[in-house]
Design goal:
Length: 123
């Protein structure tokens, strides 16, 4: 029975991450539209998130990434952060971190299999 529960958790997490990526995209924060310097910042955030998840005994899975993204958004919202509008966005830590989480959600199977592979190489 726990196998089905794990499958359900992963599926729910993938939907949550897809929704986050969609919200970021509607705000104009698509990976393909970022300047090279911002891509480098997203890559650094992705490496940090991957390290946080793996060094804390976890793994880079959809469930772990969704939980991490939820935590970032909760703490940011408590500080008054909101997802910026398309015209008003200036690079901020929270937005870059969330973009990095979405990047890892797509690249996670490759990153886990490849060890220290750079997830941006796959886009």
């Amino acid at each position: 029975m726990s196998r089905w529960l794990n499958v359900w958790h992963e599926s729910a997490a993938r939907r949550e991450l897809a929704s986050l990526a969609d919200r970021l995209g509607h705000a104009g924060l698509r990976l393909g539209s970022l300047a090279p310097g911002l891509l480098a910042a997203v890559d650094q955030h992705a490496a940090s998130v991957r390290d946080i998840l793996t060094l804390s005994g976890g793994r880079v899975s959809a469930a772990e990434l969704a939980g991490y993204a939820r935590g970032v958004q909760d703490v940011a919202a408590e500080s008054g952060w909101r997802l910026p509008g398309h015209a008003s966005w200036t690079p901020d830590w929270v937005s870059l971190r969330l973009i990095a989480v979405c990047l890892l959600a797509v690249a996670a199977p490759v990153v886990v299999a490849g060890g220290d592979a750079d997830p941006l190489l796959f886009f």
